[in-house]
């Protein structure tokens, strides 16, 4: 927490921190806990214990994100100036959105971005920057970064070994059948191209009901989709080597934990409430271990 004291406002920052982070060998309060608690008892922020490396990394990640925000705002301002738009006024409106623009939204490691809005709007902004001869290297790198993350995700799946893969989720967003530029469709396309035996579970997607651009997109990417779709979790889990989890389904993970021979699990969704996620120290996937029916099932997942 002392690392986040801003010059000129250090005293106020000390007494009103966003959080107080304490590093220890195992991330739990150690013999210094009472001393640390007394030292920070006059501050008004939560005190959290984490492993040393997480504490060290978080300090740097915060400043890297601040640097990214500065670069982002400056590139937006540059493009706005070229288009005769008041960049300051635009960003004043931008920061009033506390639900998405300034929030925890999208700040979770997992799937690449996709869908019918984000890629399209990013391409539009980059097209405008090219037309106006504005060099926006940060924004230009976003699409490449997203593509690299998608390829890393495919490698995580193929590195698990085994040719029979089950994909939980296909649409861009859970509960919809919008497949346009869904990263899960791209993952399915890569796996099919590599000859994997793939089956897909997404209760919101029914191949016969897809229409228009949505239908055209999936027919180009995943031909014969209907033959890949299964309608139950039992079908999804039957005789597979690798399970790719892209939705927050506690029921699915609890079933996996109780299988006699569970598959390797690649987590693209993050923590599921009520299900203990266990990952070993070097983020290598291990088989889940079944537990008593009354307790949440601990499921070992590959690190996101």
Kindly report the spatial arrangement of strands forming the biggest sheet.
Answer: 5-4-3-6-7
How many E strands?
9
The residue ranges in which pLDDT falls below 50 over 5 or more consecutive positions are 276-300
Please state the CA-atom Rg, rounded to the nearest Å.
Answer: 23 Å
The oligomeric state is single chain
Q: What is the CATH topology descriptor of the largest domain? A: Rossmann fold
CATH superfamily caption of the largest domain: NAD(P)-binding Rossmann-like Domain
SSE ordering: HEHEHHHHEHEHEHEHEEE
Strand percentage, roughly?
A: 5-15%
How many helical elements?
10
Structural class: alpha/beta
Give the biggest beta sheet: 5 strands, parallel
CATH level-1 class of the largest domain:
Alpha Beta
What share of the residues lie within helices?
40-55%
Average per-residue pLDDT, rounded, comes to: 86
**CATH architecture annotation of the largest domain:** 3-Layer(aba) Sandwich
How far is the N terminus from the C terminus?
26 Å
Report the principal-axis shape.
flat
Give a brief outline of the structure.
The chain is built from 10 helices and 9 strands.
Summarize the structure in words.
The protein is α/β, with parallel strands linked by helices and 304 residues long. The protein folds into two domains: 1-107, no CATH class; 150-300, Rossmann fold (3-Layer(aba) Sandwich). Helix content is 40%, strand content 11%. The chain contains ten helices and nine strands. The protein has helices at 10-15, 33-39, 52-82, 87-94, 118-131, 137-158, 183-193, 212-221, 233-237, 250-257, and strands spanning 20-24, 47-51, 164-168, 197-201, 229-230, 242-245, 264-267, 277-278, 299-300. The strands form three sheets. A five-stranded parallel β-sheet has the order 5-4-3-6-7. It has a two-stranded parallel ribbon with strand order 1-2. Strands 8-9 form a two-stranded parallel ribbon. Helix 6 (137-158) packs across helix 7. The longest helix has 31 residues, at 52-82. The chain is flat. Residues 276-300 have low confidence and may be disordered.
């Amino acid at each position: 927490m002392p690392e986040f004291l801003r010059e000129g406002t250090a005293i106020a920052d000390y007494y009103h921190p966003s959080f107080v982070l304490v590093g220890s060998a195992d991330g739990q309060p150690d013999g210094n806990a009472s001393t640390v608690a007394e030292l920070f008892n006059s501050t008004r922020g939560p005190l959290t214990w984490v492993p040393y490396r997480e504490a060290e990394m978080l300090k740097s990640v915060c400043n890297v994100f601040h640097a990214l925000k500065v670069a982002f705002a400056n590139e937006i301002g540059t493009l706005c100036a070229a288009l005769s738009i008041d960049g300051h006024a635009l960003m004043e409106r931008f920061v009033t959105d506390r639900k998405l623009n300034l929030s925890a939204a999208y700040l979770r490691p997992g799937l690449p971005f996709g869908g019918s809005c984000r890629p399209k709007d990013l391409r539009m902004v980059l097209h405008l920057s090219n037309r106006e001869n504005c060099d926006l290297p940060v924004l230009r790198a976003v699409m490449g970064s997203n593509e690299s993350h998608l390829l890393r995700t495919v490698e995580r799946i193929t590195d698990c070994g085994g040719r029979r893969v089950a994909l939980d989720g296909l649409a861009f967003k859970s509960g919809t059948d919008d497949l346009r530029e869904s990263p899960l469709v791209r993952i399915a396309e890569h796996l099919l191209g590599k000859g994997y035996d793939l089956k897909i579970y997404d209760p919101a997607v029914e191949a016969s009901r897809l229409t228009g651009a949505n239908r055209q997109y999936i027919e180009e990417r995943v031909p014969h989709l209907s033959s890949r779709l299964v309608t139950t979790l039992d079908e999804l889990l039957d005789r597979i080597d690798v399970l790719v989890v892209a939705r927050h389904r506690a029921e699915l993970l609890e079933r996996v934990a109780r299988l006699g021979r569970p598959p390797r699990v690649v987590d693209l969704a993050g923590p599921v409430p009520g299900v203990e996620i266990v990952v070993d120290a070097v983020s290598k996937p291990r088989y889940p271990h079944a537990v008593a029916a009354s307790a949440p099932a601990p499921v070992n997942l590959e690190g996101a």
